[in-house]
Amino acid sequence: MNETIVIVGLGLIGGSIAKALRGAGSCRVLGMDLDEDVLLDAISCGAIAEKAGVEDLKSADLVYLCLYPKEALEFAQKYGPLLKEGCVLTDTCGVKAEICAGLSSLQGTGKYVFVGGHPMAGKEHSGFAASDGGLFAGASYIVTPCGAPDWAVEKVLSYARRMGFGKFVTTTPERHDRAIAFTSQTPHVLACAYVMSPRCPEHHGFSAGSYRDVSRVADINSALWTRLFLMNRGALVEELDELTRNLGLFRDAVAAGDEPALRSLLEKARAIKTTQG
Asked: Mind listing the domains of the chain with CATH numbers?
C-alpha cells in the first residue's frame, strides 16, 4: 500500500530525503517550500510528485519537518491539529532537547505521533541545488522517540533504511545533544576559529590535506549554526572549555620547549584516536 509522505522544507536535507526516496517505491512523496522555484525544480527532476497543500497534510502518513528549529515548532503548532490519527511527524534538527520538548508539548493538539530524528549527513553547501540522493549512504540516523510507540519509531527507521542509512542510534534528546556538541558543533567552531588567522589568505601553495580537513566546515550556514549553537549552549560551552584546556597544554609545552611534555601529549592523542577511531 502506497503511503503519502510530505517533506516540509526542500533544502539540502529535505531535498536529499526526497531524492533518496524517489527510487524507494511504495510511497508518494510531496513537498512544501516557501520558494516556488525550488518546488518547480524538485518536480521537474522527479524528487517530488507534486507540491503539497493543506489537504495533503490531512492525508499524510509521514511528515518530515526539514526546517530550522523555530520554524519547525511554528509549523507543528499551526498544522499539527490537521494531521490524521496515526500520522508520524518527525524532524531533522541537529539539536534535540529543545525541539523535542516543544514538539512533544504540542502533540496533544493533534492526533499525530512525534518521533525526533537527526540524519547525520551534510555538505558545506546548502539549498536544494546541493541536495543529493546518495548523501545518506552508510550514514547514521539518530532517533529520539520521546515516548512514541515502537511502531512509529520503526516507521521512521524503515524509511531511513530505504534512504541508504547504514547505522541507527536510538537515544534521549539530552544524550544526543551532549554527543553532538563534541562530534559536530565543536569541530565547526574550531574550523571557523582556525580560518580567522591572518595567515589564512596566505595558505595557497603551502596547504594540503591538513588544512583542507580542518577548515572544510568553516564554509558554514551562519544563520542555521548560530541557532544550533545557542540552543545547545550548555553542552557546547563545556566542550569548548575542554578544547581550550587541551590547547593550553599544547601551547605551554611548545612555548617552554618541553619536548617530553609535548611528545607525551601527542602520544596520548594518538592512542585515543587509534583506540576510538
From this structure: 3-171 (3.40.50.720), 175-276 (1.10.3660.10)
Give residue-wise pLDDT tens across range 118-134. 999 987 788 999 999 99
Provide the 10 A C-beta neighbour count for residue 163.
22
Cβ(99)–Cβ(70) below 8 Å: no
pLDDT at 104: 83
**Residue 87 and residue 61 in contact, taking contact as beta carbons nearer than 8 Å:** yes
Q: Which of 53, 102, 97 is nearest to 79 (CA)?
A: 53
Model confidence over 10-67: pLDDT tens digits?
999 999 999 999 866 679 999 999 999 999 999 999 999 999 999 999 999 999 999 9
User: What's the CA gap between 146 and 231, in Å, rounded?
Assistant: 18
pLDDT for position 1: 54
**140-144 and 167-170: which strand pairing?**
parallel
**Cβ contacts of 170-175, under 8 Å, gap ≥ 24:** 170/142, 170/143, 170/144, 170/145, 171/142, 171/143, 171/144, 172/144, 173/96, 173/97, 173/99, 173/100, 173/101, 173/116, 173/144, 173/146, 174/97
Of 181, 182, 156, 185, residue with least CA distance to 169: 156
